[in-house]
Design goal:
Number of domains: 2
Largest sheet: 3 strands, antiparallel
């Protein structure tokens, strides 16, 4: 039985690593050295730290996992995740841990495989833009922006990895008539 538990833990570890490696926010932080010169090592350490966190805390709530991951990214990579991916990654990790607790190695393998297949290669490049305030003056305001592109199997997409469309019929959609001329969107309450 100890062999099966070790196998399940190894599968959980592989799933955690797959989820973190597929996380665009972490990819960008590592690729751009937000964690300093040891960003790659910190990313590898992060997988072990997350695994240990789950092993020490068997009954974690989703918000606790989100807080832990957010705190690690803030402290280790000086990165605040605001793209909505933090709850998704936290949910994936929590689901994998539930499979681990039940000893469901097949589900762990399937989740890790699915995450790896959907993994996108994310690159962020700094763009320099300059606007002249007056054509006669040489003063230039420069702004540094980041352009993020994601590719999955060679196909480039803007922003983040494609996600499945929500199947909830009650999901709120923005209609063209709700967008007014000045760019504001009218938000209506559900009836």
């Amino acid at each position: 039985m100890a062999g099966a538990a070790e196998d399940a833990r190894a599968l959980f570890r592989a799933g955690v690593c797959a989820a973190l490696e597929a996380w665009p926010a972490l990819q960008i932080a590592v690729e751009n050295g937000f964690g300093g010169v040891h960003s790659q090592e910190k990313a590898k350490w992060l997988g072990g730290a997350v695994e240990d966190y789950f092993m020490r805390n068997a009954d974690l709530e989703l918000d606790e996992v989100e807080d832990f991951l957010g705190e690690l990214l803030t402290n280790e990579f000086d990165t605040v995740v605001e793209d909505g991916s933090l709850p998704q990654v936290s949910q994936q990790l929590q689901t994998m841990f539930h499979h681990f607790q039940r000893g469901d190695g097949a589900a762990l393998r399937e989740m890790a495989s699915c995450i790896t297949q959907r993994k996108c290669k994310v690159t962020a490049t700094a763009l320099k833009t300059a606007r002249e305030t007056d054509e006669d003056e040489d003063d230039v305001d420069s702004v540094e922006e980041m352009e993020v592109t994601a590719t999955n199997d060679g196909a480039a997409t803007d922003g983040v990895c494609p996600q499945p469309e929500p199947s909830d019929p009650d999901a709120q959609t923005i209609k063209e008539e709700d967008i007014v001329e000045d760019g504001w969107t009218i938000v209506r309450r559900k009836k």
